[in-house]
């Protein structure tokens, strides 16, 4: 991977986006973080080191639910090679609704803001976009889940409706055929396809949607496999439903960075990732 890689990270204050950003920084990339509270990294010695030694980590204060803040992140990042979009709300449990996030359309509205402000460079290619979604979103995908975790995914109806919105928006802009049910208007907003600045159907050229299995806080198996010199794959990746149980956030971050390095294999695909 080129040391000159310039990455915009949306939703990277923690978890997958954070772990991906750290890996990219360690490989010499520059990462611009859009953060509601840049203070989240005040005591993070690793990020602080990259801020102070060459400015490879850049912190932009802003909220991805506000289009003007996303525009400022693009402007401050400069010519971006890749976007890692891993927005996800903090879940809570509602006795009637199951697991909920606030707002309920957080992810969809944030990706719309990212795409409506994406720059067009006369001298550089359109940036690559990696977006984190989920397995089990559609009826057919839910049917492919291991039966033991189907109840968990049933309780995730509200956040998963938001992820469907994410995938629908990206499919439209990338010109992919959409065969699933349309997300409700309260997720995408009325007339979302006509939003000013949104790339026309097929105009978005470099997209990867990652659909991970149930996320865990486990170790990075990929690093252990590498350290032991074993010739085996630490996790599975497929355009087909894998029916897997879990994947750790650290291993998913490993795949994000690996996919950027092997982009020709994954461009314009939706892939499952699971153990």
TrEMBL record:
Database matches in InterPro entries: NAD(P)-bd_dom, NAD(P)-bd_dom_sf
Domain NAD(P)-binding residue range list: 11-179
Domain of life: Eukaryota
Protein name as annotated: NAD(P)-binding domain-containing protein
Record lineage: Eukaryota, Fungi, Dikarya, Basidiomycota, Agaricomycotina
